[in-house]
Amino acid sequence: MIEPIIVVAVMLGLIAIGAPIFLALGASGLLGLYMARGSMAFFFGPTSLFGQLNSFELLALPLFILMGNFLAATPVGKNLFHAAVAWLHWLRGSLAISTVGASAVFGAVSGVSIAGVAAVGSIAVPQMLERGYSRTIAAGSVVSSGALAMLIPPSVPLIIYGAVSSVSVADLFIGGIVPGIALATALALYLYIRVRIYPEEAPAYDGEAFTWGDRMRALGGIWHAIILIVFVLGAIYSGIATPSEAAAFGAFGAFVIAVVIFRALDFKGIVKVLGSTARISGAILLIMGCARIFGDYLNLVRVPDAITSALIGTGLPPEIVLILVMLVLVGLGMLVDAVSLIVVSVPILLPLILALGYDPLWFGIILVMNLEIAVITPPVGLNLYTLKAVVPTLRLEEIIRSVVPFVFVQFALLVVFVLFPSISLWLPNLVR
């Protein structure tokens, strides 16, 4: 078993010296295949890469990213925040709680966490600071709630997991609804309790009162996006369209909203959105293809089987094994980006999950809940750096400190869903 150790060491070494993650995964995987099969590695490698990307369901990935990029170019994020404030202003801490609500809804129209942090954070944080909210409440609420986009459908990580594990993306989208709502509720409840205990962190709302007419008018700036996401997800859940077909409709609808309704994009803006989508999608797909080479090598030398046998052989209760796996994933998520962690860990851990008698759909939900913690923890927490970029007045150290209690809230909820899988599977089973 010395060869797998060498291969993993090469991968970690390449990452340590700053090599792109796709290069580290692809090169180390090819090295492993060469040590195991000689020159045939140069046949296996391209076959693995093509096999990973030759999936109709993967068409949904760039299309949902395109949909999110179009909507991110509109005032939808700002309008969502203002609508949430209009409806929740009577609560202490209403701006922070409104941030959670706006981020949750924006996550349902973008599927990318950093888009939510940028769109909502650029509006919410300055308003909270102007009205006397503590800097930790302002930063922590935006960074943590921005991660909801990873779980609430249409979720890009769930699409990637479905492509790697062969689990239905439609089922994964349905499975992400209850955990997504539960996590948003938990974050909002934590904020409410915190500002009740420490009222100096969130002064009571002292602005003008909102009438019912104001509240209804506030919805006027977001109804287009809400209807779009209802049609897209409704088409998937009802079986009328596949995720890829629904994503194409969603991208076209987002284009109409951005260009025709809001007139937020001219020709140059459209080209910029298309270019950004191509770069992001290309990077994700390249990482997925190269990670498949690495994963196929591990499967060839039966590393997943060895890990499964070793952990089951310990005689530990399945719940303890799962908690240990979750802790390892949280640790890895602090060091490796979400896409790489999914495509590398799933081929290794899925056999263990199946051997323990758990549903692969449930594991996909749990894995993405892990990734939600990963994107708000240093040193690779993209949400941290995104908020710093859109709100330069916040110091990075402040942002990192602000997320600590929110990480504990997310991890506590993760443990609940690990110990009680039926909560995640209730809605998919009901729809079936």
Describe, in plain words, how this protein is organized in 3D.
The protein has helices at 2-16, 21-37, 41-53, 60-72, 76-88, 94-110, 113-130, 135-146, 156-165, 169-175, 177-197, 212-219, 223-238, 243-261, 267-300, 303-313, 318-333, 338-355, 360-374, 382-390, 396-402, 404-419, 421-431. It has 432 residues and is mainly α. The protein has 2 domains: 1-54 and 284-300, no CATH class; 55-265 and 301-431, no CATH class. The radius of gyration is 22 Å and the shape is globular. The model has no long low-confidence stretch (mean pLDDT 86). Part of the tripartite ATP-independent periplasmic (TRAP) transport system.
The class by helix and strand makeup works out as: mainly alpha
- Portion in beta strands: under 5%
Largest sheet: none
Total helices: the number is 23
Number of spatially distinct domains: 2
Distance between the termini: 43 Å
Q: What's the helix-strand series? A: HHHHHHHHHHHHHHHHHHHHHHH
Shape: globular
Using the CA coordinates, give the radius of gyration: 22 Å
Main location: membrane
Organism: Acuticoccus sediminis
Function: Part of the tripartite ATP-independent periplasmic (TRAP) transport system.
Keywords: Cell inner membrane, Cell membrane, Membrane, Transmembrane, Transmembrane helix, Transport
